[in-house]
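re the bet — no i am not wrong, look at it urself. input seq straight from the record:
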Amino acid sequence: MPNAAAGREREDGRRPAYGPAPPLTLTAVADDPALLTYRLSGPDGSALVLRPLEHADADRLAAFLTGLSAETRRLSTFDGYDLAAARDLCAAIARYDKLRLVLEHLGTTTEGPSPAEPGPIVGLFELSLDLPPHDIARYRRAGIRLTPADCRFGPTLADDHQGRGTGSRVFPLVADVARRFGRQRVILWGGVLADNPRAIRHYTKHGFRTAGAFTGPDGTRSLDMILDLADAPAPADPGAPST
């Protein structure tokens, strides 16, 4: 028997909601990057775009990686900082458990350059949708049981975009992306170095709490931090994804 409610509109003219949308998949995002493309303004009023990494980004991603200072590289977790590393990241799109979002700087106008003249990449934000066994074990020792509804997050900004509030504008969008993949909590990818107080303040500001500490193979001390996405701020504009 047909559903009598099918096609029926509410009194306000809108169709009734039938529950939340199903979680996104990496394949769906690779096929249609516009699903996760956000336009936002930088702290200085410049136009920025946050979007999924694409195969055609290798050269501009390499320019971003090679431009990172020695200190920024010390704080990051990439395997390399050259064209080969950029090509590897692009080749991994939708092949493993990683979602990588790039931040493009489009200039000082809201219109930005034409598609034929994309702006430089000034940030790379990584989500790992599967958790490695050593992270699961380390958090278990801290009394936290990680589940498949958790993911890892790692951000890197170009040096001249650090300490200006750019990361604070982007993070609510990244948290929204994690929710759209059905994730409930976020841990830091590789933790955060204990001697990086600015990053620790940033994560604390956005709702992360310290879960424990560990020493890496090279002897560096790091903190594990975890965020319940129910406590994370929502994007200022829920309609930000462009279509």
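see?? Strands lie at 38-41, 47-52, 98-105, 121-128, 150-157, 185-188, 192-193, 209-215, 221-228. told u. also Residues 1-17, 110-116 have pLDDT under 50 and may be disordered. so pay up
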